[in-house]
Amino acid sequence: MRIHLLRFSCVLLTCALSGRAPGQSSVGMPGERWAAQWITDSGGPQRDEAVLHFRKTITLDHVPEHFSVHASADNQFIFDVNQQRVGSGPSRSDLAHWRYETFDIAPFLHQGNNILSATVWNFGTRSAIAQMSDRTAFLLHGVTEAERSADTNDSWDVEIERGIQALRPNVEGYYAAEPGERLQASLVDWAWKDDAVSRPQMWKKAVTLGRGALRGETDAPNNWQLVSDPLPAMEMKVVSAGRVVRVSGIEMPAGFPQKEVVVPAHAQAAILLDNSHLTTGYPELTVGGGAGSFVRLTYTEALVDDQGIKGNRNQIEGKHITGMMDEFVPDGSDVRVFMPLAWRTWRYLQLDVTTGDVPLRITGFRTWFSAFPFEERAHFDSDDPSLKPIWEISWRTARLDAHDTYMDTPYWERLQYAGDTRIQILLSYTVAGDDRLARQAIEAFNDSRIADGITQSRYPSSLVQIIPTFSLLWVGMVHDFWMYRNDSEFVRAQLPGVRTTLDWFLQRQRTDGLLTRIPWWPFVDWGKDFEDGMPPQDEDGRSSVMTLQFIEALRYAAEMETALGDRRQAATYQAAAARASQAVAQLCWSQKYGLLSDTPAQKHFSQHANILGIWLDVIPKERQKGVLKRILSASDEGFDAGGAVPPMTQATYYFRFYLARALEHAGMGDEYLRLLRPWHEMVSLGLTTWAENPEPTRSDSHAWSAHPNYDLLTIVAGVHPKTPGFATVAIEPHLGELKHVSAGLPHPKGLIETEYVVSAGNVAARISLPAGISGELTWKGNIFPLHAGSQRLTLPQGNP
After folding, report:
1. What would the pLDDT profile of 228-241 be if each residue is shown by its tens digit?
2. Could you give the 3-state DSSP secondary structure of residue 346?
3. 249-277 pLDDT, tens digit each
4. What are phi and psi of 250, to 5 degrees?
5. Strand, helix or coil at 366?
6. Count of alpha carbons within 13 angstroms of residue 186, beta-carbon side
7. Which of 8, 375, 460, 766 could form a disulfide with 755 if both were Cys (CB 3.0 to 4.6 A apart)?
8. Are 722 and 773 in contact (CB under 8 A)?
9. Beta 324-329 vs 180-184: how paired, if at all?
């Protein structure tokens, strides 16, 4: 059981042995039927909070070369063999695509009796919103006849774990992640994995809920439609637990947490640890003695003052900790280890200890970092040292916000939203060169579509939320995949969903070309003049911002249909996009200000409408630079408006991703680095991941703010796919004031390397493309052909 015994001694081995493989989720072979049964406890709650242990002994006359099993649970499981951790899961999905993991457990087996065991938990109504569920249950299936002795059925035993309870998080604001946990050591069967030691009166035979059924089977006996999990095991490694920065109530010896500390009897102590940067993972606390003691672990992204202001995240004076908590009640034994079932997020972690009549020894404290196993394959270096922390923090933010799904924030929500995810996926392609989690996300949103035709805003999610504009961004997500990955069949599989999504919007396109009023929650950005993130709509709709997002999706869909689908459908999309573009240009253009307004009433203006109008060429080319300068003059970016500018809603960190696209599209890419001022300000505030919004902010780690890495690679270093599948490369650097830039971007066939050195009269460029890849470099209007391998070019300074 992860929470109290295992020390993950075989985590790295487990990752290597896991049978997970990249690719799409798969269904069973035609006619394949599993004999293994879903099992649960006969008397425990099946649809409310429960923690169960399952166990079975199998006898082997020899150790096989391989012993492969499929495992799943609702909600989550940890699987052990002979008291050694094998793995956990399943990764989150919905009941129609319930995941199972595959493990080869042969390295954990020995001749004779072998104990298979699992902890399964379901926190019921306190579960994370991303967790979908039917009821508490466990499933283990031997892959071949040789492994069928492991199958779950009524030969397995089950025990209710009464020592673990969920805690409602004591936080202010919208919280959607896992609850805290309380472990009362005196109630725990610490030897539950060993049938020779465990308390036999606690165990009984498991009851079955019908066999495990693969997706696509006829008349399945339960609601879990099983598919193979295509994702790898999450990374799990020991990292520093941080340093002690404040102590009260005890004398703290040097060397903690590596050295033991004793909290005397009848004492209250508080130990505040600073991890130096935000992290995600599992804290592991080892104690001894301390009967009658109480330990609380509090996790937070940042300390706050008495007014709740975070300020500089590195400063602790005059600040206190508040946040979600775990609780641990020791039982006086010599060795007890507490680790929560669910991973946590924190920069600061405080241990609050209250002892009774017996001192408590804290003998160990360490952290197991956990996240999706992305590797940083890209690099970016320049002569501006202030860009180094921008790169490092962007990548850390992207990593912490990616586990078995992408997520908006690892502390507060852990929900996979389409708006955030589109940006996260682009970072996965360009920094990690990895599309495994991207495929999961694209398929999940496709699976989330409601009967009306559009996707849900976030998925998986036990609570339905509809943001129609995010459904349009999902279309963009599919198009992004098409450009970066050579997998036409995967893209074709998404086209029916693209069509139903756009059909929903086509039905809401007015005769004048604009969209009518959009229902549900048409969120665009947390602009302070947008009500709940929604741009203004007239009484009959006609929002230019929403219509522009519709135009983007129509154009992307037309390109994909032309290449991979139905050319007649493509023509329909092209015609609808043309009507919408003409309507925005004619009805929303303000001659007075030389800007697009948010509706034909021309009473409200935003950066958002003008950003999209430039990027999509609804604003003519000859006007684009002037419009950009006007909207940026209101952002303290130092641009000259060149005329009167009305009050306008500003783009937040999130929508500045699209601002960067507009800047590059308008031929102003050399100004990009000026847009990073808000990120430099966050660095000066001690943030180690990027915030959701400027101060005051709820979330200190929000994935949609991490796009500077993508921009540095694609705008500054200038590397883009030129044709679908990244078959050819387009490079157009925008160095601004930089004198040296060196960058690498992973391509499916290898690393694309670029280097630029600016001298008095020219720029020396070195470009290296993978074998079989060609392209072109554009520099100040000049086009230079590129071939596979390394090449050196001399690029003239000044205008062409």
Report:
1. 999 999 999 999 89
2. strand
3. 998 888 888 889 999 999 999 999 999 99
4. -145, 165
5. strand
6. 10
7. 766
8. no
9. parallel
